[in-house]
Structures are given as C-alpha cells and as structure tokens.
Amino acid sequence: MSGLVGGLLLDGDDLHTVSRLLVMAEQARRRNGLPPTDRLVRLRALVDNALAEQGTQRGRASAAPTYRQVTTAEYARLTGCTERTARRHARQRGAWDRGRWWIPIKE
Where exactly are the structural domains of the chain? Predict the structure, then answer.
C-alpha cells in the first residue's frame, strides 16, 4: 500500500519512517527551546493523514490520529484550561503562524 504526500509517493514502511523522523525533528526543536516550524507541522499532518487512509484502505482501524490546528482561545475552551496555560502549551507544542499560536489537537 502506498500514500501520496505532497506529490511524493511513499509506501507504508516509508510513511512510518518519515512519520518517525518528523517526530524526532519536533522533539529536537523542543529540546532546543524552539517550536516546530509551520512546514514541519503541515508535513506531519499530511503524513499522519496518509497513514490513516492507509489503515482504513486495508480494512482495519486507523492507527494514526488526525489533527487539526486551533487557536489558544479555542484550545482553552475545549480543554477547560486558562488562556495563559493554553499559551504555555502552544509554546511547547504549537506553531506560530499568521500572528498567533496554533496548537494541534486530535479530532
């Protein structure tokens, strides 16, 4: 089974490898006090969606969750935390884009 990610055709094993490499890149940026770049977040979402589609095409439940980006205000409302805590979470695992923080959450 293969998946099309941004014009690049990858088979299942390659998708898992790329997904793991993207996780490692995000972890390295966080260790260095940097948030993941927007491009990294978007590429990871594409790979995760391709893995999810691959799982459903094989007739089994999808192992990879899908994510969507929310603002800190929406994150605070959804999780029941304060906006200050949401901003702290955004700095740890979110991305700065278009003048605001965006946080990935599972759908």
Answer: 1-65, 66-107
